[in-house]
Amino acid sequence: MKSQNPQLDEPLIFKKSSKMRKGIPVLKSDVGDTIPENTIPRELLREDINGFPEVSEIDVVRHFTRLSHWNFGVDTGFYPLGSCTMKYNPKINEDIARLAGFSKVHPYQSEELNQGALQLMYELEGFLCEISGMDAVTLQPAAGAHGELCGMLMIAKYFKENGKPRKKVIIPDTAHGTNPASSHLAGFTVVSVKEENGGVITPEAVASAMDEDTAALMLTNPNTLGLFEKHIKEIAEIVHKKGGFIYCDGANLNAIMGIAKLGDMGVDVIQFNLHKTFSTPHRGPWQRACRREEAP
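^ thats the sequence. predicted structure below, dont judge the formating
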């Protein structure tokens, strides 16, 4: 069936296939031997793939260029919804990320050759502590959800080492969708709290769910409804009085970054998502978890 938009009628690459067409011809050996097995190690040779499309180089280029026009991005329109899209990345940020000192650093380089990168990472930790109100930052987690799990594991470890392990975590239904999974992976049972009062959680709802078997409350600010939580400080006081931690998911942190410090609101643990607040592509190379050192 054809689309009403001709631009979307691009056929599958298999339908462009024609026998004996190739994108890159195999050059003949310059030593007179034309048998591939005699010039290329057999373990590097691949058998023919049944049904694999046979297309020319220009067919491939045109096919994937047309498909790229289907992508929706901030260059072509407005993102209407989604925490991963509540942002705008200035083009200069992408230019900076492509500087050779960043893009060509290899993880196996010697420490002598990585001093500049290590200095930037060290200074970045300090900057993140300052703007978030946290006491310490780790750059080790490899993704947003990984940073979130790291924070929840630290909370679980704190109670275990103090000989008083706790079993529950309170999560509002307006929190980021990965929170329940991270809590379960860290060994906790999730207690759900429904939003009230126009889309935000209330201190009363938290107080009714909070007890001394609850390790933490996880919230997102602004929440997944796009609303700013109005009672964070009061909620933090309720949780801290029972010995629990406040975890704030950094999914939408770009909305308050540099304007308000979560640490001043009573938040104990947070992760920063690079693809939201720090201009990297979605599922970028590494993201970070941030925590406060002192116990509540």
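The mean pLDDT is 82.
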